[in-house]
RNA sequence: GCCGACGUAGCUCAGCUGGUAGAGCACUUCACUCGUAAUGAAGGGGUCCCCGGUUCGAGUCCGGGCGUCGGCUCCA
């Protein structure tokens, strides 16, 4: 048989030759350094046979940044971790240990709990294994043999995995350790030049909290120590952009034990907040949304009607005004309020669509351990709206919402990832309705040519949704905007409109929050910009620094002038050196600094831009520049 | 809710095996009035998260609670 190499040359091989055979045929050095075969785009263990006509490329120990090569390296390191743990903790039960982005983990069930201090010992053991040398041997066995083997070894999790596998099973052995594993793996442990165990966490078997909680050990590995160092350096740089750190540094907000999960917004943070509110309000108005305001407190019946009492009671706040009175619930979402508002009057088909918008304070009593800076809060504010439509208005409204979303996110130069979340196990309504609703959302995504993935079972109990996701500085994904199609809640609330046929019909409602939560959106924005906001968003746009005491008056009058033009300007006339005040302005990431001394006048201002670039320009020219920059946030 | 770690000045952190707290920055005052990323000196500032326990004595050890961080689970 023949396989095709990357340079299009053909290589003759015996039938049944493996990737390693092919590498050997090319050269002994390649055979030694080969880590993986990439065959027609997907990776294959070197121990597996090639087939006639396949296009083969070899990944070697020099492909130190190739994700597939790193995956194999880390997957193999995970096996070394399991071997080390089994040696140090006899009787430990092993579960699964895959490579992940930036590293790997392995899940164990320990007889006695371990702590982070134990990681060092385990890490040393792994290094010892590498120093001793390990080779991986692959074998294929029947399902029954695999089950029997792991039963004999008293490894119940492996038995369960083997039971659930279909077809034959592959095993990989290194040293005294054999694991049930699909591969691919390294030939041997030599390429593993840097290993670090990073953290310890609880994780439920198969991701289900009804199952046993296992102990997960996270780690990472690289082809060189320099790569590991670079990785740690990147993490440190990412942490410098963390919105929690910048929130304090830039005096935007703080969190307090006195009200966990409820940010205190400082004046500078409020500038950002209000910029989002202004954007939301202005753009909603252009698109026919009507701003409303509905109560914060409702009786329990409202939430029984909406279904939230059954589904989310655990996460709601209740207040009892006085002894013996009925409790009220603090609203965790706006839907019921908007349903009641719609139902307060007789509606005609001529009124539809009705688009109620409200950016109101909501409270959700999130489970302990889930709060996270601004990204997961108890006090949450959504740029919410509910659009009541007839069946044939659905498509048009959803298309318009997707366009609206694109418009909003483009303002910030960010691109969210779309997901289509389909029917969950526990839900209202018939399968026909769900088919219909899911199809409507998917059709909209396709019409607007938006890339998306499907998240099965992740929809709400009342309908499917399109979610927009973004990633924070540590690589975690967060849901931002959402568009949800709902046939249920209007029915629960008995909502109707009078149709042209003079009969009552139930409207369909589209729930949507496009930025999502203002708190979360701001958190992501702070990280996206690393605190260096564009001019139109900057809490302080210009700082005027008088050179000496004698220039304070002129600086103040320049400030007043810029203030009149609508810009956010401060004078820094502190009794500090010029260098110090410029340094502070840079650290606060103020976009423009104007140094004002003897040489300056309206005709010639000394302007320093964030980052250090300096120029001398007239006030008029500067104002012209500012007008252009300010317009980025408010395109006509 | 679960696993692990942590909680000391406004911020970032140090505080060894128990003997009633310290640095840098910030703040205040004084001197300097400065030309593009830190002027110098002096000073003020702490219920060491909370409650309980052990001890002659607890920031330090133990128990409980609250909060935060990294994960898991959850997320209308």
How is this fold's topology laid out?
Layout: E1 2-4, E2 10-12, H1 19-26, H2 28-33, E3 34-39, E4 42-44, E5 56-60, H3 67-88, E6 93-94, E7 99-100, E8 103-109, H4 117-132, E9 137-141, H5 143-152, H6 156-164, E10 169-174, E11 177-180, E12 194-204, E13 213-222, H7 225-240, H8 243-249, E14 253-254, E15 264-265, H9 267-286, E16 290-291, E17 297-299, H10 300-306, H11 308-312, E18 318-319, E19 328-330, H12 335-342, E20 347-348, E21 354-358, E22 361-363, E23 379-389, H13 394-411, E24 417-421, H14 431-447, E25 452-455, E26 465-471, E27 477-486, H15 489-492, E28 497-498, E29 504-505, E30 508-517, H16 518-529, E31 542-546, H17 552-564, E32 569-571, H18 578-587, E33 592-596, E34 605-609, E35 614-617, H19 619-631
Parallel strand pairs: 16-21, 20-28, 24-25, 31-32, 31-33
Antiparallel strand pairs: 1-2, 3-4, 3-5, 6-8, 7-8, 8-13, 9-10, 10-11, 12-13, 14-15, 17-19, 18-19, 21-23, 22-23, 23-30, 24-26, 26-27, 27-30, 28-29, 33-34, 34-35
The structure holds one RNA strand of 76 nucleotides.
Describe the structure.
With 636 residues, the protein is of the alpha+beta class. It is built from 19 helices and 35 strands. Strands 16, 21, 22, 23, 24, 25, 26, 27 and 30 form a nine-stranded mixed β-sheet that branches. Strands 6, 7, 8, 12 and 13 form a five-stranded antiparallel β-sheet that branches. α5 runs antiparallel to α6. The radius of gyration is 31 Å and the shape is globular.
């Amino acid at each position: 048989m023949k396989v095709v190499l990357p340079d299009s040359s053909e290589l003759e091989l015996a039938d049944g030759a493996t990737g390693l055979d092919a590498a050997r045929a090319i050269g002994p050095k390649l055979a030694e350094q080969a880590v993986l075969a990439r065959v027609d785009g997907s990776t294959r263990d070197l121990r597996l046979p090639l087939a006639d006509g396949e296009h083969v490329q070899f990944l070697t120990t020099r492909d130190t940044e190739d994700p597939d090569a790193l995956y194999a390296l880390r997957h193999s390191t995970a096996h070394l971790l399991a071997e080390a743990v089994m040696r140090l903790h006899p009787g430990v039960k092993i579960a699964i240990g895959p490579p992940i982005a930036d590293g790997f983990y392995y899940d164990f069930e320990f007889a006695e709990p371990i702590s982070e201090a134990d990681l060092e010992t385990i890490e040393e053991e792994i290094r010892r294994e590498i120093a001793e040398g390990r080779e991986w041997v692959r074998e294929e066995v029947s399902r029954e043999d695999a089950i029997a083997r792991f039963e004999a070894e008293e490894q119940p999790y492996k038995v369960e995995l083997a039971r659930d596998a279909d077809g034959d099973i592959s095993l990989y052995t290194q040293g005294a350790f054999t694991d049930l594993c699909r591969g691919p793996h390294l030939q041997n442990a030599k390429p593993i030049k840097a290993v670090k165990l990073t953290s310890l966490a609880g994780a439920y078997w198969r991701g289900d909290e009804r199952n046993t909680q296992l102990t997960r050990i996270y780690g990472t590995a690289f082809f060189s120590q320099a790569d590991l160092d670079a990785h740690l350096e990147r993490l440190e740089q990412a942490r410098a952009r963390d919105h929690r750190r910048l929130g304090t540094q830039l005096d935007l907000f703080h969190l307090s034990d006195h009200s966990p999960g409820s940010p205190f917004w400082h004046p500078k943070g409020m500038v950002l907040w209000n910029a989002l509110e202004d954007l939301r309000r202005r753009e909603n108005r252009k698109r026919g949304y009507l701003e409303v305001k509905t109560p914060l407190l409702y009786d329990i019946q409202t939430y029984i009607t909406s279904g939230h009492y059954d589904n989310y009671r655990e996460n709601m706040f209740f207040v009892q005004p006085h002894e013996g009175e009925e409790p009220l619930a603090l609203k965790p979402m706006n839907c019921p309020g908007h349903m009641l508002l719609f139902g307060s009057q007789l509606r005609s088909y001529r009124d539809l669509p009705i688009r109620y918008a409200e950016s109101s304070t909501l409270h959700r009593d999130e489970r302990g351990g889930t709060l996270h800076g601004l990204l997961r809060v108890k006090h949450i504010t959504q740029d919410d709206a509910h659009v009541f439509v007839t069946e044939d208005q659905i498509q048009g409204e959803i298309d318009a919402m997707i366009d609206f979303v694109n418009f909003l996110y483009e303002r910030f130069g960010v691109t969210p990832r779309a997901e289509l979340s389909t029917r969950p196990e526990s839900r209202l309504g018939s399968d026909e309705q769900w088919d219909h609703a899911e199809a409507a959302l998917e059709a909209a995504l396709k019409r607007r040519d938006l890339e998306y993935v499907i998240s099965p079972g992740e929809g709400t109990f009342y309908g499917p949704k399109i979610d927009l996701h973004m990633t924070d500085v540590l690589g975690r994904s967060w849901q931002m905007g959402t568009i949800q199609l709902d046939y249920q809640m209007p029915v629960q609330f008995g909502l109707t409109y009078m149709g042209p046929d003079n009969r009552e019909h139930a409207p369909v409602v589209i729930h949507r929050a496009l930025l999502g939560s203002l708190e979360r959106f701001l958190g992501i924005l702070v990280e996206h910009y690393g605190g260096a906001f564009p001019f139109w968003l900057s809490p302080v746009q210009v700082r005027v620094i008088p050179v000496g005491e004698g220039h304070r008056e002129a600086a103040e009058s320049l400030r007043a002038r810029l203030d009149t033009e609508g810009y956010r300007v401060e004078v820094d006339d502190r009794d500090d050196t010029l260098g110090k005040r410029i340094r502070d302005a840079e650290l606060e990431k103020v976009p423009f600094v104007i140094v004002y001394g003897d040489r300056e006048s309206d005709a010639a201002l000394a302007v320093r831009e964030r980052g250090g670039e300096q120029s001398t320009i007239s006030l008029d020219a500067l104002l012209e520049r500012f007008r252009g920059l300010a317009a980025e946030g408010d395109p006509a």
